[in-house]
Backbone:
């Protein structure tokens, strides 16, 4: 007697009781679904984000009023902080001196950019930058030149634009757009550079943006209620990073008049900190999904046991017959174990298909919303885990019903009505 | 002519069941020998110990005391799995209610004992087909039990009993669920099997059926009441 024969019998038994099997299998499917979908999605996100989110260059860090990523309810605390004003940032830059390269920038979202008759959606990020922006941040140009100190000092109406904006404003132009004019809220700017295409992070395209000198930004595009700027700092070397961080914190605390016993009234994020913040978030997500998945699987195990006990009861005569015809106990045990494992695997398969499908769809959703770097992570390890888990559940919860079946008295069993 | 070998040799067996406080003596000191090629009917009213003796003969049960040797092997002290092996190899059961697997074809049903005997799939199918042809069901081997008449179902069950080429065929009220005409056909089949050399043991309470056998053993109150040759076969 081979295992294939047992599986055939198990599938037949499932077909005989479609509704009951279906309901029991549903909880297995849900458990496997949660595990596989969450693993695939978080893996995809982590892979995409760990490489991308860090827009900061090497041995650089960022000082802001609020953290880049916030999860939770600490928003009120951050909003009470005083803004890091442009003059304060300039003073910080002066005090840092030659110890590090400092770039001051600020971003406001939701701008409409116009050129001739064309206009973008009101979703372009406008960024005020200085001459060090491209040194400190991991951003580069594909065409044209960067902002110079003179552009900043003399408030020159020049702009560097991303490819998404070009596509919208100059659909018919195949060559360079340098020298062309764009309008941002009635102010005219001349294009002097084009950003290298970067793709998106967490649904935000990094190519849908326009960069202008910081002085213009402060004058025309800063709102009263949000004047805080971002300060990027690049240490002279990797080894100097920690001491530069310490120095920056000291200067910033002095400038912002933070008392020795108070905590910082600003956030300082390094690349590593940003990545670890995100992976902390995704790990939490993963843990929640796995716990609920495993919970569903445990509940499913009890369902499987119940179903197998009913099945043994209903098939008492069949078991009696099999024993009369010469089935030994190990064989009966094997038949019912293979049946419960097959049941679990069928449920697991449905959950795997649903989980992989959902994860794929969500990944594609991220991608279509601008996160071009995300790739679908096929959850091999989670699938392997599910197969093993389903086998264990089938074994663990199937052994008692199987043993019960095997030890039935053939005479009693044959007489059973 | 030398006498055929003894297949069933029961010596002074008794079976006691404990039902609550009470002890029920289903069999009391029964001795019985059945030789290869015999056609025996086991008769008796309900409560006579007939079913208990049949279970014993079929190696489904073991005696409380006494000895049972099957084809020279002492089976009275064997455990569950060894008994299963004997049943599989040497005993072909035919039940009153047929006991076919409802969702399996006739062929699959007949293959079942060979499955437990560890016979390979193609060999199994060949032998099951042969057995079905022997009982006149070669045309219907891919039908399920619910697509077959009562008589045909019992023929499938007989084919299943024959397929392992057992030492004895043990039939428990094989015509109990059939009309009398179909019952006669089944009895003719048993007669043919006996004539072709099979050992047949028939358990019944109907005189008409028992008359087909060549020897009738009557039980009453757990004892063998009579054990006589039958010459008045129909």
Residues:
């Amino acid at each position: 007697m081979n295992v294939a024969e047992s599986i055939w019998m198990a599938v037949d038994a499932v077909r005989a009781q479609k509704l009951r099997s279906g309901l029991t299998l549903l909880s297995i499917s849900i458990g496997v679904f949660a595990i596989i979908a969450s693993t695939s999605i978080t893996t995809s996100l982590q892979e995409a984000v760990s490489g991308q989110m860090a827009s900061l260059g090497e041995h650089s860090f960022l000082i802001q009023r609020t953290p880049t990523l916030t999860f939770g309810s600490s928003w009120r605390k951050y909003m009470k902080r005083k803004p890091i004003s442009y003059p304060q940032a300039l003073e910080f830059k002066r005090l840092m001196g030659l110890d590090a390269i400092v770039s001051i920038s600020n971003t406001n979202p939701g701008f409409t950019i116009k050129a001739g008759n064309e206009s973008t959606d009101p979703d372009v990020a406008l960024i005020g930058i200085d001459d060090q922006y491209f040194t400190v941040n991991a951003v580069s140009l594909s065409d044209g030149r960067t902002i110079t100190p003179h552009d900043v000092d003399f408030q020159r109406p020049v702009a560097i634009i991303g490819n998404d904006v070009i596509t919208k404003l100059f659909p018919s132009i195949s060559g360079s757009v340098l020298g062309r004019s764009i309008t941002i809220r009635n102010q005219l700017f001349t294009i002097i550079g084009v950003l290298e295409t970067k793709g998106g992070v967490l649904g935000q395209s990094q190519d849908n943006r326009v960069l202008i000198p910081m002085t213009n930004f402060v004058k025309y595009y800063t709102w009263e209620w949000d004047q805080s700027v971002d300060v990027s700092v690049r240490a002279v070397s990797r080894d100097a990073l920690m001491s530069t961080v310490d120095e920056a914190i000291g200067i910033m605390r002095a400038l912002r008049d933070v008392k020795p016993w108070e905590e910082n009234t600003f956030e300082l994020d390094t690349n590593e900190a940003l990545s670890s913040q995100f992976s902390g978030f995704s790990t939490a997500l993963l843990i929640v999904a796995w716990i609920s998945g495993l919970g569903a699987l445990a509940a499913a195990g009890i369902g499987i046991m119940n179903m197998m006990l009913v099945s043994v009861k209903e098939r008492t005569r069949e078991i009696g017959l099999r024993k009369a015809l010469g089935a030994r106990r190990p064989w009966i045990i094997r038949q019912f174990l293979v049946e419960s494992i097959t049941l679990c695997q069928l449920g697991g398969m449905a959950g795997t298909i649903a989980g992989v499908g959902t994860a794929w769809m969500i990944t594609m959703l991220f991608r279509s919303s601008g996160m071009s770097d995300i790739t679908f992570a096929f959850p091999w390890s989670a699938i392997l885990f599910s197969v093993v888990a389903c086998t264990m559940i089938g074994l663990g919860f199937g052994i008692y019903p199987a043993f019960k079946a095997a030890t039935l008295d053939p005479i009693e069993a044959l007489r059973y009505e | 002519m030398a006498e055929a070998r003894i297949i069933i040799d029961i010596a002074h067996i008794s079976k006691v069941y404990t039902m609550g406080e009470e002890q029920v003596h289903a069999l009391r000191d029964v001795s019985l020998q059945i030789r290869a090629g015999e056609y025996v009917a086991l008769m008796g009213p309900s409560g006579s110990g007939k079913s208990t003796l049949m279970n014993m003969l079929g190696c489904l049960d073991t005696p409380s005391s006494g000895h049972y040797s099957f084809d020279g092997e002492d089976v009275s002290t064997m455990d569950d799995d060894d008994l299963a092996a004997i049943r599989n190899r040497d005993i072909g059961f035919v039940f009153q209610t047929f006991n076919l697997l409802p969702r399996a074809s006739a062929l699959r049903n007949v293959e079942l004992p060979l499955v437990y005997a560890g016979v390979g799939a193609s060999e199994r199918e060949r032998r099951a087909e042969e057995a079905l042809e022997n009982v006149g069901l070669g045309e219907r081997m891919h039908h399920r039990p619910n697509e077959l008449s009562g008589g045909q179902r019992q023929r499938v069950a007989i084919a299943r009993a024959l397929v392992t080429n057992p030492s004895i065929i043990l039939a428990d009220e094989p015509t109990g669920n059939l009309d009398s005409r179909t019952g006669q056909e089944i009895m003719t089949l048993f007669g043919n099997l006996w004539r072709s050399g099979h050992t047949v043991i028939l358990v019944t309470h109907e005189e008409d059926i028992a008359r087909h056998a060549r020897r009738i053993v009557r039980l009453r109150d757990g004892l063998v009441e009579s054990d006589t040759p039958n010459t008045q076969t129909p």
